[in-house]
Each structure stands twice: as structure tokens, then as C-alpha cells.
């Protein structure tokens, strides 16, 4: 679980507390590995999948449905260009995140931001 916490950028204790809460609510299932009892396997439960699906659908309705309706009124070429801009920015942020993760793994030395 410490490895997952590290990847999420949170402390192992914070991750463990969240996993415990979600397990108690039935959103996650937690098992010990059969080969090494120190290894913990975390799996989304059927209830967790259901709740997540409902959340995604409500988010779509509440936050994005109007956006999609508005996008339908914009000429296709403009939508395509905007998509390119969003992809460029997302790729830049991912590259920056990877550089920061590498710097953290190399003793905390961080590179300057270059978007």
C-alpha cells in the first residue's frame, strides 16, 4: 500500500485511513497476498463500481451535459482545434509531473518548470 500512496503523492497513513474507510463502507475489498502476507491487495467491490458509475453519470449530467450541448453549436474545425490545445496542455502537465516524480526519486532535486 505504501507504493500506491507514493504514486498518489500522499502519506501511507493517509492512504491506509482512506482505504479503511472505503472498505468499511463496502466500496473496496482488501485481501492479503497468498504468497506474502505483508502484501495487501485492494480491489473495488461491486458496490464501489456501482457508486462510481453513478458518480460519473451524475457528473456528466451536472457538469458536462450543457458543455456538450454548447459544443454542438460550434463549427467542427473550432472544436478540433480546441481539442488540440487541450491535448497539448495535458501532455505538458504530464511531462512536468513525470519530471517532478523523477526528481523526487533522485533525492528531491526538482527541475525548473518548463511548460
Write the layout of secondary structure elements.
Blueprint: H1 2-8, H2 12-24, E1 28-32, E2 40-44, H3 46-71, H4 76-105
N-to-C span: 32 Å
What's the Cα radius of gyration?
A: 20 Å
Query: Helical stretch count?
Result: 4
Strand residue content: 5-15%
Average pLDDT taken over every residue: 88
Structural class: mainly alpha
Encode the helix/strand succession as letters: HHEEHH
Anisotropy-based shape: flat
In helices, the fraction of residues equals 55-70%
Overview of this protein structure:
The chain is mainly alpha-helical and 115 residues long. It has helices at 2-8, 12-24, 46-71, 76-105; strands at residues 28-32, 40-44. A two-stranded antiparallel ribbon has the order 1-2. Strand 1 and strand 2 form a beta hairpin. The chain is flat and about 55 Å long.
Question: Summed up, what is this model?
Answer:
The protein is mainly α and 115 residues long.
What are the salient characteristics of this protein?
single chain, mainly alpha, two-stranded antiparallel sheet, 4 helices, 115 residues
Amino acid at each position: 500500500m505504501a507504493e500506491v500512496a507514493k504514486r498518489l503523492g500522499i502519506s501511507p497513513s493517509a492512504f491506509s485511513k482512506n482505504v479503511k474507510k472505503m472498505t468499511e463502507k463496502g466500496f473496496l475489498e482488501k485481501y492479503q497476498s497468498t504468497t506474502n502476507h505483508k502484501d495487501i491487495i485492494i480491489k473495488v467491490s461491486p458496490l464501489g463500481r456501482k457508486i462510481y458509475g453513478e458518480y460519473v453519470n451524475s457528473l456528466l449530467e451536472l457538469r458536462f451535459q450543457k458543455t456538450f450541448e454548447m459544443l454542438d453549436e460550434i463549427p467542427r474545425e473550432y472544436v478540433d482545434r480546441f481539442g488540440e490545445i487541450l491535448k497539448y496542455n495535458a501532455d505538458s502537465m504530464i511531462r512536468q509531473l513525470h519530471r517532478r516524480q523523477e526528481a523526487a526519486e533522485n533525492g528531491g532535486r526538482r527541475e525548473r518548470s518548463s511548460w
